[in-house]
Amino acid sequence: MFPSRRHLLLCVTFITLSLLLLLLATPDWYRPVRPMQPSRPPGRSPSSIDRDTGRTVGSGGGQRVRDGKQGARPAGSRPTVRRGKGSAAAAGGAPCPSGLFTTISAHGRLGNKLCEYATLWTLQRDDPRARPAWILPEMQRALSPLFGKLPLPTLPQSCVKSESHFLKVKYSKFDQMASAKRRRPILISDYPCDAKRFHKYRDTILRQLTFRDSVHQEAQRRLRQSTDALCDGLPPCTYIGVHVRRTDYRTAVRRMYKGTLVGERYLTRALQLCRRRYRRPVFVVSSDDLSWVRRRLRGPDIVIAGSGGAGSAERDLALLAQCNHTVMTHGTYGFWAAYLAQGDVFAPTGFGARDSFLSAAMGQTDLNITMVPAF
Ligand SMILES: *[C@@H]1O[C@H](CO)[C@@H](O)[C@H](O)[C@H]1NC(C)=O
Ligand SMILES: *[C@@H]1O[C@H](CO)[C@@H](O)[C@H](O)[C@H]1NC(C)=O
After folding, report:
1. How far apart (Å, rounded) are the C-alpha atoms in residues 293 and 250?
2. What is the rounded CA–CA span in Å between residue 37 and residue 51?
3. Are residues 282 and 367 in the same domain?
């Protein structure tokens, strides 16, 4: 029995060894397993390949071209490209636009930024030399929480590290700039607010600056909550947004207009005009100086609704924009509250050596603007 048992063992070992050798010698054996993976949904495998190496789509892509199904494949491969770029951007390597382009500073607060955005959009709309136009990441960060996606593309942060990258140009000088100077991308670096010019495209601009649903709904809720007690029953209230700009604008008014901030007198007058003109007016007041308006603006039809605190400028702009008409005082923020509300506008006159360039610009538009003496 012993020898035969050993024989058997030898036999088994031999067979096992030869099988193993056969396996090792023909790695082709495993090949059929591999193509199984690419035969998964086409969108998936290339993206994982792409993320690993960045450029392995070749094998799959080659197969695709051979398949000749170009109609279906590019759709599958497009997300690959997008994902690849996304990861590159995360690593700070998103490509900068090649060739010349125009951008605009994102100086100032919300009102300024809206002016700058609308001015740039209009410039590139009117003047092919300003195309393509890109917005700075700072602009995008400020505006997109309110309005969602804007049509002008955003420059990757890595492309704006150095201002020397740009040729800084004043907005008023853009038109006359010699084409020879346009060797670098252009940064319009003052704070332009060309209301007269962008008003030509009012409908388009307003469509671009449509509040996100969530922002709109929250603003409507706030408007109703703050005026519920006053606006019970019929007829419906006429909501008048009142923006009272104070604090640091005192120096701006002195510097730019050799003037003084409008105060109680102006507001009393403007509100009185509204009471005469509209049915059942309710005044929804927002300000950068809430304690001042609380002390000075009182009445059964006045609600101090401004929120103060973090993010209040954005939330209050959305609130004022829900109103039917606007009483503004100074500055671009009040202008935008009025522009977005799309109703009648009350603005001060005679608070300085000249009126705000905004009311001058608005006077040349078809907005129903009533100039109210400041003092
Ligand atoms: C006035 O504003 C309120 C609140 O946004 C709105 O519901 C109402 O339709 C507006 N009225 C008119 C006449 O536009
Ligand atoms: C514009 O303002 C005037 C008062 O100056 C007012 O009588 C008129 O109704 C307003 N027009 C519109 C379309 O609201």
Report:
1. 15
2. 16
3. yes
Select from 201, 231, 252 the last residue of a domain: 201
Asked if residue 359 and residue 287 are part of one domain, the reply reads: yes
Is 171 found in the same domain as 264?
no
Ligand with minimal distance to 345 CA: 2
Same domain, 226 and 194: no
Distance CA(311)–CA(98), nearest Å, equals 36
Q: Considering every ligand atom, which ligand is closest to the CA of 325?
A: 1
Q: Which tops the pLDDT comparison, 61 or 180?
A: 180
Amino acid identity of 355?
D
Residue at 134 is within a domain: yes
Domain count, the chain: 2
Closest CA to ligand 1's atom 11: 324
Ligand 1 atom index nearest CA of 237: 1
Same domain, 272 and 366: yes
**Separation of CA 368 and ligand 2 centre (Å):** 6
Ligand 1 mutation target, pool 221, 324, 325, 368, most atoms within 8 A of CB: 324
Tell me which of 201, 229, 263 is where a domain ends: 201
Token pair for 181: 């100077």
371 φ, ψ to 5°? -85, 125
- Protein residues whose CB sits closer than 6 Å to any atom of ligand 1: 223, 239, 322, 324
For the CA of 370, the closest atom of ligand 2 is 5
Please indicate, yes or no, if residue 51 is contained in any of the structural domains.
no
Helix, strand counts (H, E) of the chain? 16, 9
CA dist., res. 162 & res. 332, Å (int): 28
State pLDDT tens for residues 200-255: 999 999 999 999 999 999 999 999 999 999 999 999 999 999 999 999 999 999 99
pLDDT score of 204: 97
Give, for ligand 2, the residue of 272, 275, 277 to mutate: max count of ligand atoms closer than 8 Å to Cβ: 277
Task: Judge residue 84's burial from the number of C-beta atoms within 10 Å of its C-beta, 0-12 exposed, 13-18 middle, 19 or more buried.
Answer: middle
Among 34-43, 75-84, 96-105, 319-328, which range has the highest average pLDDT? 319-328
Above 50 in pLDDT, residue 89? no
CATH code of 285's domain:
3.40.50
Range of the structural domain that residue 335 is part of? 214-373
Q: Can you give the pLDDT at residue 16?
A: 54
